[in-house]
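Researcher: Please predict.
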Amino acid sequence: MPCLVLASQSPRRRELLAALGLELEVRPAHADEAVHPGERPRDYVLRVARQKARAVAGEVVLAADTAVVLGDEALGKPDGADDARRMLRALSGTLHQVLTAVVVLRRAGAAAGAGEWHAVVSTDVRFAPLGEEEIAWYVATGEPLDKAGAYAIQGAGGAFVRAVTGSVSNVVGLPLAETADLLRQAGFPLPWDTRAAGRVAPRGTP
């Protein structure tokens, strides 16, 4: 099975992919993560994910970018504690969306042929109303400071999430079902696909 290059320094994405049994090489990528004037949230996350995928070397590269969307505003990582408090106040008691763009890039010379495949996945998240004491405590933990939208559902921020409609792993940072579909389209062998991995299929497998 070839090695998959993950163009991200996110430990959450690395852990999600490793849990699938995928062999990974992590090569953090840099991209312009500022929201451009007039740029829609879906276009924003897809642009950043594409820039990350194209910025690193590798036969098969996977990149992703996540934003929390409230109304028409894409909330990326906060610029310090004051910005984290602003985001959490804005999200308090709301129904908002988490958007993740996933890009799989297979370069020329690969056995399955070159190409680029992508998906943008949206999940609805219902947030509990937050008081100033809760916000101050959460920001003091440091957890919100490097998270899109200033919270982590898989951490202490999960205490503020009332409901999730859609992919939970998408809120963590990588929609696994859609990611597996993209890797399959790119011809990348998944651990459970014995034929793609070059192993002998069990008797009775079509």
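Model: Residues 196-206 have pLDDT under 50 and may be disordered.
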